[in-house]
Amino acid sequence: MTKKTFFGAMAVVTAVALTGSALVASNMGFKLNYTLSQSGAGSASGQSTLALPDNRQTGLNDAKNLLDDVTFANTVSVSRFLKATDTLQSYTGRKGGGTAFPLAAGEAVFIKMLTTTNYIVVGSDDPSLSYALNQSGAGSASGQSFYAYNYHQTAADAKALLDDIGFANTISVSRFLKATDTLQSYTGRKGGGTAFALTPGEGYFVKMLTTVNYTPSHY
Q1: Cα–Cα distance, 140 to 152 (Å, whole number)
Q2: Which domain holds residue 135?
Q3: 184, 109 Cβ separation under 8 angstroms
Q4: What's the DSSP call for residue 81?
Q5: What is the rounded distance in angstroms from the CA atom of residue 29 to the CA atom of residue 179?
Q6: Residue 170 lies in a domain
Q7: 206 and 136 share one domain
Q8: Domain end among 74, 106, 124
Q9: Maximum CA extent, the chain
Q10: Per-residue pLDDT tens over the stretch 79-104
């Protein structure tokens, strides 16, 4: 099902510590222990962002596969951001719970939890891939994309990400604060907020002034 999002009304708030993750890397492969929190346990509503790798584990192809892999009984839903309409498409896996949409490289998702789960993410990045970050009116309603941060990306904070994409092409980068269900934004301009650290496993909203096919810088 598709529902209106509230992102345009979200406040810019003070940064808080969000992650309980640990990353083990070898070349371009990795294994990540990423905490998905239920409501009341570090999360206002049980929602977390999740950035999956370019090369996911075998069988992890769509929203149903993801809920099953996380553990179906522990989940409420998984949602993807539709940039053409600035809405969320959700899938619950229950009767009448929508379509099991495909997962796509470079696109983060929201996942809503019933029970806190330490999800083990495994896979690898593909440094040859580029991701379309579209400006408003060119495949995007407002110029926002929900970007799946790469696990071996050299950009360590919001400023570095904007610079790596091309600062003149961007408007802002925002992260979801699950403790308050709000967005914290950084523009890199005067009065444009704090350049918060980027965390493997998290997705980020990137708002564009110009369409860019973005190939992240990797280490």
Answers
A1: 27
A2: 131-214
A3: no
A4: E
A5: 30
A6: yes
A7: yes
A8: 124
A9: 49
A10: 999 999 999 999 999 999 999 999 99
